[in-house]
Design goal:
Number of strands: 7
Radius of gyration: 14 Å
Number of domains: 1
Largest sheet: 5 strands, antiparallel
Number of helices: 1
Shape: globular
Order of helices and strands: EEEEEHEE
Distance between the termini: 16 Å
Helix content: under 10%
Length: 104
């Protein structure tokens, strides 16, 4: 489920959107909401200009990828050892908890 997540810094257009956003977080929650979102993002090119300038959405809401974010050895290792192995997460006691993590 989390294998397809884009790297930090990716610039995308959301379904029905008119302005591009830049991904700045993965597997995110927002205050007052128990939902877990695939991404948090901010407007591109403005960036985070205030607490109300963050957006939360899931991978299927992406209409188009304009730029694939930074990928180095550290990102590839994180994907291999963490994102590729998470199959289920939950929100419990105000934090994200991994429910199913496959061994290598």
């Amino acid at each position: 489920m989390y294998k397809e997540l884009l790297p930090i810094g990716s610039v995308v257009l959301l379904n029905g959107g008119e302005k591009r956003v830049m991904i700045c977080g993965r597997i995110q929650t927002r205050t007052g909401d128990e939902a877990i979102y695939d991404y948090s993002a901010c407007y591109y090119p403005e960036g985070i200009v205030g607490s109300d300038s963050m957006f939360f959405f899931n991978h299927e809401s992406i209409e188009k990828v304009f730029f694939l974010g930074f990928q180095d050895e550290e990102e590839l290792t994180f994907h291999k050892h963490v994102l590729d192995r998470i199959s289920e997460i939950a929100y419990e006691d105000n934090k994200i908890v991994v429910k199913n993590f496959t061994e290598e």
